[in-house]
Amino acid sequence: MGSTYYQELKMGCDEEYAKEEVQKLYCNVHNKRARISCDYDNFGSNAYIYRYCCPDFAKEVKEVISNMKRFNKIEIEDITKKRAF
Fold it and tell me: Does residue 11 contact residue 39 with C-beta atoms inside 8 Å?
């Protein structure tokens, strides 16, 4: 079993755990939740916060994810550049 199999297995476990923790969080101002996605590359697991109501809440979510110490890179995606549906 190669390292790719291990990375996929680890990323799946990390993603499931992180999503459970993020779903417990609500914005104090807007009473909304955030959404994350995860992937991996040669450097480790990555988490992306792609749906959030305000930048302050996104920073709070990033702090919670970074305290898990399971992801090498955590990014907050810029929602102002995305097209509204």
Answer: yes
- The secondary structure element, H or E, covering residue 49 is strand 44-51
Cα distances (Å, whole numbers) of residue 79 to 22, 39, 50, 60, 82 = 18, 19, 7, 16, 5
Element (H, E) at 75: strand 73-76
Query: Domain locations in the chain?
Result: 3-77
Instruction: Report the predicted TM-score, pTM, of the whole model to 2 decimal places.
Output: 0.82
pLDDT digits (tens, 9 = 90+) for 52-61: 999 999 999 9
CATH architecture assignment, domain 3-77:
2-Layer Sandwich (3.30)
Would you tell me how many other CB atoms lie within 10 Å of the CB of residue 64? 16
